[in-house]
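Notes from hallway chat w/ T.B., transcribed later so I don't forget. T.B. wanted the structure written out for a chain they're using in a teaching module, and asked if we could keep both sequence and structure tokens in one place. Agreed to drop them here.
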Amino acid sequence: MTEAILLVGGKGTRLRPLTVNTPKPMVPAAGVPFLTHQLARARAAGIDHIVLATSYLAEVFEPHFGDGSALGLHLEYVTEEEPLGTGGAIRNVAPRLRSAPGDPVLVFNGDILTGLDIAGLVRTHRTCGADVTLHLTRVPDPRAFGLVPTDDTGRVTAFLEKPQTPEEIVTDQINAGAYVFTRSVIDTIPGDRPVSVERETFPGLLAEGAHLQGLVDSTYWLDLGTPQAFVRGSADLVLGRAPSPAVPGRRGEWLVMDGARVAPDAKLAGGTAVGPGAEVRAGALVEGSTVLRDAVVEPGAVVRNSLVGAGARIGARTVLDGAVIGDGAVIGADNELREGIRVWCGARVADGSVRFSADCS
């Protein structure tokens, strides 16, 4: 068996207001906290021991998952007192690992939805005798990412910052956020200060002549760092486009959790998920969206590609398109909120007061 470190300490700043009350990995996607999907996929790949590196709202994780036995896992939790960066977080949890110095340790991030063949990544690491093996994916436009070129054997040759000109785009391969470390390599990461594994650890290892292997896996991959991406990822899980053994129901156009109520003439489509206790009332249309616990979508409302926070209320005939509504917010009737608008937790928007606004907090 391979053990793993799961990095779940980020504040999820880009996901606000979703992460005001909930850490990013615990925001529900396809009916369950996103972290559930990652843990279930790791277990399916043969991993049985996972150490969670927590920080922001760290107290939320253990009450929900406990010791992991319900998922067939043994979970442990380590909380950073001060932010340590990705490399520092890995080093901080190292005392909880059980692996021998030459054993592989999987490390993955708590905000990546992927169809990666986890067992295949570990197998590649063992076969190549690498110090670190990185999951790489190809993207059509890599300008927003750091580039990771490899030679014809898959060995990493460089780590390049975000390219600024066409001439700098030497590959479409990017770091996809999952790694296998040989256990002894983790102990070389400084343990007394913040460290970025992407900007310091990997380039430093490469400069020292370490063997860093890349595995290009072009199955489903999505960084859930923005609200729009998170909504899309949840819909893809419901639709079956993204793999997970933890989706609590049959894949299809919609997923309605126990305790939710949907009017007979309401329409759900596009991978919509409706959380426990939520209501979608008469004549409403909810498409490609996530409606969290105890939220209410009033009669005739239209909700597309949006996220409605826990306990929020969407007024009658209101239209949301690409919107994020924070927990407990109330949007009055006859409003129209589009194009990435975010409404803060607990905010109130009066009837008929907003059309196409870019900001509402």
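Follow-up for T.B.: Residues 138 and 172 are 5 Å apart (CA to CA). Might be a good example for the class.
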